[in-house]
Amino acid sequence: MLPTEAYKWHCLEEQFFKLCRSYNFQEIRTPIFEDAELFVRSVGEDSDVVKKEMYRFVDKGGREVALRPEGTAGGVRAFLEHGYQNMPQPIKLYYYGPMFRYDRPQSGRQRQFYQMGIELFGTQDPLSDVEVIKFTANFFSGLGFENLELRLNSVGCQSCRPSYQEALQGFIRDKGELLCRECRKRSHSNPLRVLDCKVETCREALTDIPYIDQHLCPDCRAHYSAVQEHLVQQELSFQHDPLLVRGLDYYTRTAFEFISTHLGAQNSLGGGGRYDDLVELCGGPSLPGVGMAVGVERILLAMEKEGLLPEEPAPSGVFVALRNKEAVGWAQRVLYDLRKIGFRAEMDYMERGLKAQMKQANRGRFRFVLIVGGEEALGDGMVLRDMVSGEQKELSYEDAVQHLTGAQPMVRRERQ
Ligand code: HAM
Question: In whole angstroms, how far apart are CA 107 and each of 43, 68, 113, 292, 297?
Fold first, then answer.
């Protein structure tokens, strides 16, 4: 990410942090690498993320570590290590940082990518699922997205999933050679993954695959209905997608994804769901949770395709230009003073002529140039030039500051 791209990232970051504050999520920062076993246990030994995509290596101390492929497992590990399970629930956490998955890079899929995520621990109440989904919807609508599809499913729980897995295994057996080798192998280890296979022949063979809907236990069914009812009440439209299983194995009940119809294969801008067994799986008590993560680079791609990228910030701040070398001390005082009172301010350190300094100010997108020294500037006088209107005035420093402060919203609002 280079400076010319930074303002786009800032726009996503501001939107995310603002929502975290208003939804009352608190920040957590976890290490970029963890014990590899943590991901094996939580994300799932048979998931593609662990089996094929995890950066895994042995460190000098002989420990097997992995670059985090996602943020939930590290969050749960930290949660338990610091006794959060014994605190009043629910606990609401958010995080932002790089994740790593070794896959074939393509548009919208990198080996290092940034996720923003939230996790809500301690309750199974459908309202908490809706809280996470609503947050995600608000995040996307705040960025200007209007046509994202929200896909929703329930992937059941420990008590109803075995019967579904059995049904899937029967289906896989019946389809035999019509399915790819990987899917036939998955029949034993992780039959749910078959729903997610991208191989064309498999997709064709899946048309009459059994859905989980018929296998949900009464509790999961009631939970899923309640989530849907709340979403309707919140006027959030969604599409029930019985094939949605997601790529990580820790999900129970609610699973969801926000899909952009403007991207190709990598069209999921964000997703998440409930993980009621994960805390226990990581060595803690039985404590439910629900969360989601969005992918920054992919969102920016979609924003570009939909014409939603923000414009480059308008020129702002003050460039202090020197008409002659003698005024350098005075110019420096002015520069540091302007910064102290909150302006973005800059000057030339390369003994450029006035014309070159004006060009530098333009390149740096400064709104004003304050020309110090020279004949026009008597005493503490200086010339203030508005680079947008071209207007130019002789002023004392005090009046110049007052003038700049009048134009302040444009100057100060900018992120440094
Ligand atoms: P995930 O669906 O694997 O979920 O990833 C979330 C988002 O990260 C995706 O929707 C996508 O935007 C982005 N993403 C994933 N892989 C890549 C990649 N290789 N390149 C670019 N972007 C990518 C999770 O990671 C879960 N931890 C979400 C969650 C939190 N569930 C519960 N809590």
Answer: 24, 21, 12, 22, 10
